[in-house]
Specification:
Blueprint lengths: L1 H19 L5 H10 L1 H34 L4 H92 L3 H29 L7 E3 L1 H19 L2 E6 L6 E3 L1 H18 L5 E9 L2 E7 L7 H4 L17 H11 L3 E6 L5 E8 L5
Length: 353
């Protein structure tokens, strides 16, 4: 409403100026005629075709009495003024049509944006439902796998207890008590790994030298390598750049991968742990000479409880994957040209965004 009164107030001022200006001031009359276009265009832009035509008609109605009074003795000049009123109407019509089209297009774009917003909202809700369904499915698979993993050692313990209860030989009793102890230890390790996986602690980020972590893991696994008759080699590219990470968690991640490589490599084979820097990322590679992993298994080796080894818990690699994800890194695996697999732990040097 305020714009409405502004438009017609401006038109009234122009008309008054016309009436009070003597006819000899031709230049001023030419200027005042052109000033009518301003309220006409503003009205058309604001209110569309209806507004443009109405403003043009009003401008013509205001101007006609001035023509009749001031230019009645000059037919040529009067006709020129009437022609100007026709142009008023043409400008109001054209501007109004264009304004209506633009307004319609803007409305269509607004409707489209609203539809896209609603579609995006529905898509997010669908994704949320899918994520909840995936979590429920994962929990179900986890529970089924855990039940299967626990049933085996419990069966062994139950059978050993029955035999111990019936046997009188001290040697046999010690043998089956050893089985009970071994299976109980296996159960404890399984549950510890499960807790590590299901309730990972937040990394305590500090600056450490990555070579110290690698050497610690090599020292911890050297006895296993000697027992199997497997060579464990280490190649560390000289670097003094400290890496931001949780040293304990990174040790665990690399330890899981290295033990996995040693278990896969037969006697006489070699496991190579190497470190080098690539830009702002440190790459730790563990190369084994085992039988490799089937293509269909490669996509699942980081799934909880999925294992291709007899007696394996299937939690070592998933824990390593989880640790690397928490450190904004990644763990990948690829088949070697000759034999075996190579696991790569890519760790950013800094954890800052």
């Amino acid at each position: 409403m305020r714009r409405y009164w502004s438009i017609y107030g401006a038109m009234l001022l122009i008309t008054i100026a016309h009436y009070v200006s003597p006819t000899r001031m031709m230049l001023w009359h030419e200027i005042l005629e052109r000033l009518y276009y301003l309220p006409i265009v503003v009205a058309a832009l604001s209110f569309g075709l209806t507004g443009g035509l109405t403003a043009a008609a009003c401008a013509g109605a205001c101007y006609i009495p001035h023509i009749l009074v001031s230019w009645r003795h000059s037919a040529g000049e009067a006709n020129s003024k009437y022609a100007e009123i026709v142009v008023f109407l043409a400008v109001g019509t054209l501007t109004g049509v264009l304004s209506d089209r633009e307004r319609k297009r803007a409305s269509e774009l607004s409707d489209t944006a609203e539809q896209l917003r609603m579609a995006n909202k529905q898509l997010e809700e669908s994704f949320s439902k899918l994520r909840r369904a995936d979590r429920l499915s994962a929990v179900g698979q986890l529970a089924a796998s855990l039940a299967h993993e626990i049933r085996n050692p419990l069966g062994s313990i139950e059978g050993a207890v029955d035999i111990v209860e019936r046997t009188v030989s001290e040697e046999r009793r010690r043998e089956f008590l050893g089985i009970i102890k071994k299976e109980a230890k296996r159960l404890n390790g399984l549950l510890s790994n499960l807790l590590d996986f299901s309730r990972p602690r937040t990394p305590q980020i500090k600056q450490v030298q990555i070579d110290s972590i690698v050497r610690t893991v090599v020292d911890l696994t050297s006895h296993t390598a000697q027992h199997k008759g497997t060579r464990l080699e280490c190649e560390i590219e000289p670097t003094r750049v400290p890496v931001e990470c949780d040293a304990e968690q990174m040790t665990q991640a690399l330890l899981n991968v290295t033990l996995n490589a040693l278990q896969a490599t037969p006697a006489g084979g070699t496991v190579l742990v190497s470190v080098h820097q690539q830009g702002d990322v440190v790459l730790i590679r563990v190369r084994d000479e085992g039988g490799g992993i089937a293509a269909e298994d490669t996509e699942r080796i980081f799934d909880p409880f999925y294992t291709t080894k007899a007696g394996g818990t299937g939690l070592g690699l998933p824990i390593s994957y989880q640790i690397m994800t928490q450190h904004k890194g990644r763990i990948t695996v690829e088949r070697n040209t000759e034999t075996g697999m190579t696991f790569t732990l890519a760790l950013p040097i800094t954890q800052h965004e």
